[in-house]
Records
---
Amino acid sequence: MDADPSEIRTESKAWILIGLTGSTVGRLVLEEGRLTFAARGIGALSGGHCRKLGTQCGVADLARRLVEEEEVLIFDEPVTTLRFTFPWYTFGGGMNVRTGDGRFRISFLRPANTALEVDVTGGAISEGRGLGRRWKALLTKAEQVAAGRRPRSG
């Protein structure tokens, strides 16, 4: 029996990285054949980082919304329209996602320049690398299912 794309679902805390020093936390979700990232809070983003990210995701008032702790949708795309890579230099703890409108660097490890939250539940090296492996496997499977190919087992 072929897998149903709607059955492949996962969600985790992740950080979107901009430039050398910009980052903010959010939720990365794979559900019903779509990959979404929603950011919350300004994190370590400067005004320039916010302008760049706002341009990529089409949100003109991104900085204001993040400062006000609104959840802001950065991207929401079908897996079949995305290109994703897991570069060696992230040591399994991050990935790059290319949408039709932009390129986004995602980390499953809390960047060192971000404020440590009191209730932090993610970002440890081993946990981040494990999440990277899990995301790689699930995105590959979701891409195969959406394209009508039988996913490889294992």
Note: The helical segments are 47-57, 62-67, 125-146.
---
Amino acid sequence: MSRSHGHRFANEALPETLFDNPLAFARTLANQRQGLQLLVSAWDRAGALLPAADRVSRAGLTATFEQRGAFVVIQIVVPPPRELGDPAAIVIVGSGDGVTRFDGVQYFILELDVHTATGDTRFIVVSRNERDEHGTPLGEGPPPDTRWFADHVCELVARRPPPAPRMPVVPAWYWWHAFRGAEAMRAFLAANDFASQLQIVQRAPILLLPEIADAADVFLTGGATSQSLREFRDRLRGDPSFGPACHVLATLLANTRAGSPAANLARAITVLGEASEYVADRSRSSAIEADVRHQLASIGVDVRANYEAAQRLRAAVELQPEASRRVARGSSTGVSHGTGDPTWSSLFLDESELPQFQRSEDRRAEAPPPGALHAGYVAWVGHDSWPMWHIVDTRWLFPTAEAADHFLRSVLYAIGDGLPALHAPQLGDATLAFGGATPGRMPGTRHASQIVVVRVGRMIAKLYVAEGPTAPQSGHALDPAMPLPLARRAAQRAQWMLARYWLSVGRGSDAATLFAQSPSERLLAEYPILALPELAEAMLTLGDGYAPAAQALYRLQTQLRGQQWQAHRDATRALVRTLLDDRASEPRVNAACAYTLVTEMRRLDSDPIWAQLEAECRART
């Protein structure tokens, strides 16, 4: 744990002052001048025993005093954090008016932290009381937007879910920590001419943000300043490459996992606005912004407004000349989204499940999140008096069930779009439900919606259903049970199609047909895919007539594993080679499956070939 100046202030000097006499503390903070004097005194006391080189300026230290109903909320803005464990913000909550009474005081710190697995910047909430020697971690918190953190704390105190995501206002130092500004700035300062500096910026586009220069002036030591970066940026503004560079920066912001997605996406939009001012390709800007707006909606930020804005932007791109559209679409994600997994398009609901709805939008080729193979959605619309009027059918597909589960856990608090959680029946490996209604702007109207999320193996489905604008006047209302049949059908589709996937690998369909005609071990030599345990289940999707053959294949595989070790070993090796060499299916799915087979064989067989195959599998996943 950090023992820096900021850490000592937040964990020792300030809480000691607060808990010694909470009412006196609140009274002092209620007076702006006296409150600042108290904070400055605590800050100086926190650094008194530190070497002079480790003391930090108190610049930026401020506080606000706010009455929220029966509670007083004190928000403290601290100097920029420098080390992990340093405070990013502090909020104090107590009941009363802070002048005659300040009881039940609770003290919360938003600390700078990193994910241990990825090294990405994050912020965690820590609570302290007068008895604790160490703080109590309460999990991941919001970005360092003091107002958002105060709202988050108030919901914690009230034992309610965290507030919905929003467009945050973050300080300049946030970008320095979230995007490794120190490393980027060191490389930039080592460059001695414009060409070298441009190469550094191409590798670290975050240097184009003015906030990085502002933060550099706070964090740089030894007489270094941001002046050369500011001059470089001013010079680049006059160059034709500035607009495309802004597009690269916006794409980086939109696709990074570090820090706050809401903050990063919001900043990407302003970067695109600046790019447009410098005559950047407007079609390309619109395509990127459409993706950004869609991502904002998907994490629950102004859902309706951002979805509608994304639709308008995409419509504008469609009106551009074909060549321009190709450039825009190709640049919005930086990667090519081919057909990939042959099951992908068939995972979505279609007219057979939604016979009375019209398909209003089909976006099955969106940029997938890190670790995913595909992402996309199809939107449907019905009559505005129906209880289920607007349906957005979203899918994510991953190489493995473990990757899908990890993604779902990582977006657990955002995937419900800020709606209250509801009880949900188990429809797959994991099922979540959310729903609620809020009053509309016009009297007698409301906005009601339901969400059901289902994970089936390596696929995640999200069904968003909105009530028709005139449904209440027609005597109809959206009920939480209404989307469940569609969610159940989505789960059944996934089970069916993911099983069928293996028929596309290693001529699996031909192998299944031949084995059904003549179940024989001899077919393994020509069709190693028959050694795959999942193929028996895949055969069942071909119809009831294949059930006996599927059972016979299962018995053959069991016999090989239990009684014919050498034959099982040879069949597995040939199967792994088939999976890695197949070009008609998704290589990452096949490599993940091959890796599972190889690691099992390594535990049972000391032949070095398995170690070689394991390394090859790792390289392809």
Note: The chain has four domains: 5-163, 174-333, 344-496, 505-620.
---
Amino acid sequence: MDTLRDTAHAAPLSRLGTSGRGRRAGRLALPIVASLALAGLASSASAQQSFPLVCHGGSGMVATLEAGGDLRITFTPTSVGTGAVAPGGGECGFLDRGFRPGEPSLLLFRGDRNGIHVLIEAMLNDAPFILNVFNDNEGSMVVTGIGP
């Protein structure tokens, strides 16, 4: 929304002039601005809301680095929220609740090498870590951020 306001104010139609050429530019500018606004709304509507997931590395996790650079990590889902009971080695859970039946216990990270390094180090060092994830409804919890 801020982008739309900034775009609309960056080149007000009144600055386009009143000559025949300016009027044509003004008529073209409005549909272009409207198209950009709709594109922005469509992309923000398709964005998924992420939720914090608290994990604890350990031998219960298995990582697979695919040729395309995707990192997949299987884990054991908690049955209660991690706000009540800290996850054990190899477990991940939401702060406020346990995993529901059918929710995936597979993390999918499509990020840079630094993020891959951080996640693998946490797994190998049996360390706690926090991720932001969403369920893609295709069998994965997609990682959108590492850390709180």
Note: The chain has two domains: 2-46, 51-146.
